[in-house]
Amino acid sequence: MKRRILTYMQQIDELLQAPPDDTDWTKAIENHLTQIRFFQHERLIHLIVTVLFALMTTSVVVGLVSSSNIWLAILLIPLLILLFPYINHYYLLENGVQKMYAQYDRMLEYQNDKKWNRYFAVPPKES
Asked: Is 1 within 8 Å of 49 (Cβ atoms)?
């Protein structure tokens, strides 16, 4: 998923840096909104999983402090090992979706500018 979101955002950045004249902004925006929905769904699922892992880790820490049970210490190790990658991945998804919102705004600007130029462009002079 990390490679997919980073690759997709890079493709959109490249499109926005040097858009071809024949870019169909309506289709590009529609596709971009679909991708945003996919990543929003992924972000929600990872938020739920991350929060559950954080709650389990906190519960184990509280249990460990109150009972000093060695089995809770053994359980805490894999929970911590898994919690940090989940937080890191959720961070990527959250920031990626936020960046995709900014890309969407820029795409709308291009689309509106193109529409404006189509209706109000100065006709070429005849030689």
From this structure: no
The overall pTM is greater than 0.70: yes
Residue 39 CA: distances (Å) to CA of 16, 69, 102? 20, 40, 15
In angstroms, rounded to a whole number, what is the distance separating the alpha carbons of residues 46 and 73? 25
* 25-66 pLDDT, tens digit each: 899 999 999 999 999 999 999 999 999 999 999 999 999 999
What does the alpha-carbon distance between residue 86 and residue 94 come to, in Å, rounded to a whole number?
12
Count the neighbouring beta carbons within 10 Å of the beta carbon of residue 65: 9
